[in-house]
Amino acid sequence: MMRPRTTLLASCTALALALGATACGGGPVAAGGGDKELSGQTITVAGVWSGSEQKNFQKVLDAFTEKTGAKTQFTSTGDNVSTVVGSKIEGGNAPDVVMVPQVGVLQQFAKEGWLKPLSKTAEQSVDTNYASVWKNYGSVDGALYGLYFKAAHKSTVWYSPDALDQAGVKPPTTYDAMLKAGHTVSESGLAAFSVAGQDGWTLTDWFENIYLSQAGPEKYDALAAHKIKWTDPTVVEALTTLGKLFKDKQLIAGGQKEALNTDFPGSVEKVFGPEPAAGMVYEGDFVAGVAKDQFGKKIGEDANFFPFPPVGAGKAPVVSGGDAAVVLKDGKNQKAAMRFLEYLATPEASAVWAEAGGFLSPNKELDLASYGDDVTRETAKSLVAAGDSVRFDMSDQAPAAFGGTKGAGEWKILQDFLRDPSDPKATAGELEKAAAKTYQG
């Protein structure tokens, strides 16, 4: 359970209001700025979140209302943000703020001329509170448009401590040791890994972690921008490494066929559900939320993680994702919207959701004590400590037709590779063919 810190937050908010501070803590404060400065104004916010994520983000919106007097209205767009926002703009009903979940979509919005650059105040907060990599991912052609508020740590391997204890293995520190530990787990009665092959995005995450570690950040950046082809030898090497895992029936719960019929929640259930079939599941920090909320697991005791281990002579990868707040030019309340982004850039705003759970912040000024459990604290610490070595999810940087569409592009090709991983070179060729078509388009 989260430790309540409502009193601390209330006093922090009151102090910030009284002094016009941009953050609660040791930073300088500026005089001026009245209490309830935005009373009578309304900001509309659109984003992909629903369920518990929407509920927790509402707490951030409510804290902003308490601070400034501005009312807020949130609309859940579903996964296809660009289509929904585009139709709202065309219909003259554009939201003021959009929480954009993909770098590629942010770039698309900027190139369409839909976005307003961040204010100097917000940009100064980004310079102070974030590693520069987050500013880079929020910028297009040198202008900062996006503020990364919520992040995901996609280099975490989640495991059942009971399963590893029963097999007599400890969390591994290299990729080869992870596969070796997997065989030992398998020999003790459970498969090593549960793989969510029905959801193509999980397979892109497997590839990206292996590729970042094996090929290094410069090649990763070049491939993400399609400055090198997917037929590059480094891609074939990463696919070969991944293929060894995919074709090993001892390592994957139910083998390739069952993996292709397992979605992400199902993959977590196979490890942490009532009838475990595997000891480990690779995916982001959000695995913890499913294990806790759906299967009643106590994070740190019944479910834990180890960092995705380095492959060969490479370094341990840190792949991230995230949601960036942007202000639309066609929104009816741009000034108040920008004030909202200035608020989101403060550790005070991040603390609200951190205390609610299911959240990681790239804001390095956020006190880690704001997180409610040790495992989330460790995950957040790892993300922030990675600094500029963090790399954003590659498929999220690509045009959606290649990196983010069900049954097409990278998702479909990697599903085909899971089904038959015998020819990495041919798979690389298919990826290049699909990438060339969409990047040119």
TrEMBL record:
<dbReference type="Pfam" id="PF01547">
    <property type="entry name" value="SBP_bac_1"/>
</dbReference>
<feature type="region of interest" description="Disordered">
    <location>
        <begin position="421"/>
        <end position="441"/>
    </location>
</feature>
<keyword id="KW-0813">Transport</keyword>
<dbReference type="InterPro" id="IPR050490">
    <property type="entry name" value="Bact_solute-bd_prot1"/>
</dbReference>
<dbReference type="InterPro" id="IPR006059">
    <property type="entry name" value="SBP"/>
</dbReference>
<protein>
    <submittedName>
        <fullName>Carbohydrate ABC transporter substrate-binding protein</fullName>
    </submittedName>
</protein>
<feature type="signal peptide">
    <location>
        <begin position="1"/>
        <end position="23"/>
    </location>
</feature>
<comment type="similarity">
    <text>Belongs to the bacterial solute-binding protein 1 family.</text>
</comment>
<keyword id="KW-0732">Signal</keyword>
